[in-house]
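Journal club prep — side note

Before the paper discussion, L.F. wants everyone to see what a predicted structure for a comparable chain looks like in token form. Sequence:
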Amino acid sequence: MKKIVSLCVLLLLGGCSESFLDEVPQAERSETNFYRTTEDFYNAVVGAYSTLKNAGLYGSGSGALFAMTEVVSDNTDLGVTRQALNASTYEIEDLLVTITNATVGSAWTGHYLGIARTNAILDRLPAAAVPQAGKDRFEGEARFLRALFYFNLVRLFGDVQLITKEIASPYGANTLTRSPAAEVYALIVEDLKVAKEKLPATLPAAEAGRASRGAAGALLGKVYLTLKQYDNAVAVLKEVIEAKTYDLMPGFAAVFSPTTSYVANREVIFAVPYVSGQIGQGSEMWSNWAPFNAGVALLGTGGGNGGGFNRPTADLAGAFEPGDLRKEASLLTSFKNAQGRDVNDAYVVKFRQQGALAGDSDVDFPVLRYADVLLMVAEALNETGKTAEALPFLNQVRKRAGLADKPLLSQADFRLAVEQERRVELAFENHRWFDLVRTGRYLPVLSAKGFKIKDFHRFYPIPQREIDLNKTLTQNTGY
């Protein structure tokens, strides 16, 4: 999604301030004199947002979450030769994850880096000389991000260390035990409730990439759905729908097109933004997810060779119904090489940008979008016995895909219909594994397809490095 942004809100480039010449010289900056002004907190919040592009989170085409939520599932695999460089990702694909897995370790440390940044903001903000409106906005953003970081952690690892205050000592977390998941979820819910009250309902184009009230509501709805608090999920998700701030784009492919402006794209609620221009803020998704060594024939001059990461499986390609317009806008199963011959190798086109330089695409990565909200409210309504009320929400998504409406189904059949719709609508957007675990379907679905899946795989191992540093940490069962 192409953005219209000013240099001060490229969100992830680092901060800037018109009055920086009047501030303390950078050589004299410290934690003591930094968290004081509106500009200081703006820059600190930008730093918190920047964590989303950390290799342990959404990365830029090879981040840990892609491997831990898509490659681990029946959606994607790796189309690159096994070697030491990708050993940790192959462990995830093979469901043979070790306690020293580098990808899993980066997910743990990356998310806690973001939590540390948000905790610093929330601790320092009350005493700062910042107007109340600014304080509310910064608090809302910090709480939203902290909730997102913890929501990913608790779904990936189960019980985790619950840190809600800034830790000054480098060893300050080395005696903290794992808190029960219920306590982590309680913090997530509280953070999102506050964020929903303090964040703006709409964002101008110049603030693309920042969190809104709708983002907090959509994420809170997903949390309630995960907790099986279906009535709460319905209530908050219907608020997002009834606000009419968001809507489905008329065409599925336009949601992800680099030529769709931020203003025109009403479907994306919250995304990790990318900006081309060889300034270090472009996305690697297109070049890294293209077939391994596809080269100029597919990627163009300067577009890279193709990394073979996140390759769509034949099972996913076959999951699309005949006539589903989303299929060719999501994946292709072959390409022509430099000699003009067809190469049968599947690849993701959902985030394609022809002509982009390697690692320098404009296409954002959506964390929350309106189609997800519609499918979540359909699922929650069905679980409360209101299948007839749920059906129109499911069919809205199908209609955009060029498919016929589903008739009224039994509750059990509707569950499967939502599972199917979420898989093809949200493919490659880091939902598949979380969906299967949330619904308790990861064992039957993946076992039936030949995966060597075990019950304990619902959680990843606590990185051994963290246990070595903190002897109070316990390991997850099975590792």
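L.F.'s comment for the group: The mean pLDDT is 91. Keep this in mind when we get to the figures.
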